[in-house]
Amino acid sequence: MKWLPWKLYRFFKIFVSNFTKIWLEPGTQIGKDFHIIHGSGFLAVHPGAVIGDRCGVMHNVTIGVNMSGGVPRIGDDVFIGANATLLGPIVVGDRVRIGANALVLTDVPADSIVQAPPPKIFPNVSAMLKKGRGNSTANKADGETF
């Protein structure tokens, strides 16, 4: 009968994790006042990760390992934006703001802001079509793939 609580725990853990898309293992060290700001979406935290006090995490965030191993250590009062990914043996200092779509692979000092690369803006599609009507080989010479 000693196995029954463990089996029940595993069943409910799998059910709840699949239903909520939030994967938090029991061994994960999470500080006080941890907030999952948008509960709809995906959140995966490696069981070895350490998250400080008063941290807020948006949806579709991954905190885990990369090919070199090791897990992130996140300080206090950190905000992690939507679709952000923190990988490897990195240290994120206190009061850091990590923007949406950021990929963090290196240490971040305290009181910093991490921003994803700016998006590339492509020219107007109608202008590209007008330009391409004359000679299709000219477009290939310019390196355009449209």
Tell me what you see in this structure.
With 146 residues, the protein is of the alpha/beta class. The chain has a single domain, classed as Hexapeptide repeat proteins (UDP N-Acetylglucosamine Acyltransferase, domain 1), CATH 2.160.10.10. The protein has three helices and 14 strands. The longest helix is centred in the N-terminal third of the chain and has 18 residues, at 3-20. The protein is globular and about 75 Å long. The model has no long low-confidence stretch (mean pLDDT 83).
Q: Calculate the terminal CA-CA distance, rounded to whole Å.
A: 65 Å
Number of domains: 1
The number of strands is 14
CATH class, please? Mainly Beta
CATH topology-level name:
UDP N-Acetylglucosamine Acyltransferase, domain 1
Q: Strand order, biggest sheet?
A: 1-4-7-10-13
The CATH superfamily name is Hexapeptide repeat proteins
Low-confidence runs: none
The average pLDDT score comes to: 83
**What proportion of the residues form beta strands (DSSP E)?**
15-25%
Form type: globular
Question: How many helices?
Answer: 3
- State the major sheet: 5 strands, parallel
Helix content: 10-25%
What value does the Rg take, in angstroms? 22 Å
Secondary-structure element series: HEEEEEEEEEEEEEEHH
CATH hierarchy: architecture: 3 Solenoid
Secondary-structure-based class equals: alpha/beta
